[in-house]
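pasting for ref
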Amino acid sequence: MSTSPTKPPTGVEVGNIAPDFELRDSENKTWRLSNHRGKVVAFVFYPKDETPVCTKQMCSMRDRWTDYQSTGAEVVAISVGSVDSHKRFAEHHGLPQSPGFTTSNRYSVVLNVRSS
């Protein structure tokens, strides 16, 4: 039996192709990374809807939305919670939504690790 701790997944190295994954957008449609190969996709991770810091972060992004759009990147917001929670959060604060504002119910979609 080994006594050394197991290493958690380290993610993807900069410059390597990200592994494919899918998630549900604010319209409950499937969004798949492989459908966006060759395009610039920017991931924005935030812990939870309607919390003070996350709300400030996401509203700041909303206020600079034209700057994000000018890069040509698709912005994908990933957080915990349900699609309905994200949709209410986006509507409450006037945040951009699909297309270009996608949410997931777990962070682990990027690492391909299941959460409980």
